[in-house]
Write the structure tokens for this entry.
Amino acid sequence: MDNNISFSKISATPTLNSWSQAYNAGKLFAVLSLEKTKDLETESLNISGKNLLERLEQEFFTIEEKNLESIKKAVSSTFENQIEGVAISFAAGAFVNNILYLFGLGNAKVFIKRGGSLGLALDSQNATAEKAAASSGFLKEQDLIVLATEAFSQVVTQDELDSNLNNPDPAQISEALAPKIHKAENGKISAIFIKFQTPQAEELIDEGIEENEEIKQEVQVQEPSLFNKYLSFLKSAFRKPNLRIPLTRKIFLLTAIVIVVVLTVSIFLAIQNQNKAKIQALFAQIYPQALKKYDEGQSLVDLNKNLARDSFLSAQKILQDNQVKFPVKSKELAQTQDLLKKVDDGLALVSPIDKSGLDRSTLSIAVRNGSGKEGIAARGANILKGFGYDVVSTGNADNFNYVGVTIKVKKENSKFLDLLKKDLAKDYTITSTSSDLSPDSSPSAVIIIGK
């Protein structure tokens, strides 16, 4: 194991009907849990689980070029023969240079803590062996990765996990969580905590799983004001004044009027305070939700642009649906509009549409390795996907003698040349651009990354 990767495992004690294991071989890490759902005559869960992990190891280490698709095929092949009457939860992570490839099925999850913020990098809800959940991206220094079975996430809440990950030592994280894991007496609980260190910081971009969240909103119902009722009473008292009212009756009437006025003002203030309390309650309900989604989006901008966009859109919906419920010029409306502006700015960071109006998602690109170094095309593809381009394939160029980056587009797509140069200039030296790509070419653009 490279000295820039440290890790620690935790697994619950197996039971009669459940078993789990945290596994690693080289730069391949995985967690697996099995649970009997039917009382059938099958081999023990222990044997079945170890057979699956052995097959995963064989499939993984026979791959010549390790990338998202090739490893995903190995995972699908490992689990293609389903075990009758057994429920499986599985997550895996493979480190290839500075790229992390993630895979999962059976409601397993992968979390990444970066810069003090915990994000969900992979959720395999509804994923199957035929269609396993998958994502990939670049790692940054001090990243903490957590591979967890479904049962782990049921026992350890995300807030508890976030708190424990403040300790950067994987071994101490496992030690802190061990009492709770073993107290649960659930054989399906398993997790691996991995710390990654590298001298070079790069963007981590996800290709994969969207998380759908439902937000419940409370409808405000305004109660009728009592002020008009008492105002009507006062009017009726003065409607037909008797100019010859005895002194005692005048005093009584004046006292009654004062009492009614005081009572009316008190009720008016009470209703006003009640409405103010309801506005504050609504604000306390929706603003923290929107702020949390905004913060999640900010923490995921470098980690997973697809999930970052989802978080920003969720925050935007909460704020837009509720801002009309706050009074004009109220501090609640001002704070809501300020946060909405920040959300809009966040969405601009993850939108595929450039300020010039060009939509990157409409340009199909093939990325070619013109240097001969492993992983060059995959890295370039991930960078382009992060900007929102439609990367349709990666592979080798016609030779490995290219220097810098060569950009070729079809004539009708020449308007994208300057945008491609701008997007790639941060990471590469652009040596050649042209709009003479063959009209018969399947992709609209070809990017060749040389030495």
